[in-house]
Amino acid sequence: MVEQYQNLIHGIVYKIAGHRLHRADIDDIVSAVNLRLLEPDGAKSLSAFDPTRGMELTTFIGMVAKSAAVDALRRLKHEVPIQEEPDEDGGAYYTPVSAEVDVLTSLIRREQADKVRQAISMLPEADQRFLEVLVSDTGDLEDYAAQLGVSVANLKVRKHRIIARLKKILSNMYRSGS
């Protein structure tokens, strides 16, 4: 099963550490991720993955890969000198890491946004239009309340009720694994 996620694992490790480590070091990290995932009882193993907790398998594997890459960079941070030029075999620069590119955060946000869009599509059309007005650049509650002939307080109550419905829909989606 791990084989089908090799591109994801390698991509995340390379994105985080590829410009700082040799290809062999990247391959070592990818191997370490595979071992972590295949451990029988590890906290970062596939046996610990629980889809009912609202996380996709790709996100879980990505978190394990990110963790391994960051751990490797932290271990090397104090040992590896900064180089001005690539080494003789054309390998990557070695540089200590102060900030990392977080590919995994982007992946998680995209998955969450997809779930929220799916949940919004399950709301009545009037509630969907209301949310569009709220998030638009011209989403002024006073103007919208005047258009509808209701008070701003009424719109705020409506907003909170819609958000509560969205939370319930999302909770059900995560429980059902969809």
CA radius of gyration is 23 Å
Task: Tell me about the largest β-sheet.
Answer: none
Decide which structural class fits the backbone. mainly alpha
Total count of helical runs of at least 4 residues: 7
| Average pLDDT for all residues | 78
Provide the succession of SSEs: HHHHHHH
Q: What is the count of β-strands?
A: 0
Please report which band the strand proportion falls in: under 5%, 5-15%, 15-25%, 25-35%, 35-45% or over 45%.
Answer: under 5%
Write down the overall geometry: elongated
Number of domains: 2
Distance between the termini: 21 Å
Uncertain spans: 80-86, 92-101
- Binned, the helix content reads 55-70%
Describe this structure in words.
This protein is an all-alpha fold. It folds into 2 domains: 103 residues, no CATH class; 55 residues, Arc Repressor Mutant, subunit A (Orthogonal Bundle), CATH 1.10.10. Helices cover 63% and strands 0% of the residues. It is built from 7 helices and no strands. Helix 6 packs across helix 7. The longest helix has 25 residues. It is elongated and about 65 Å long. About 10% of the residues have low confidence.
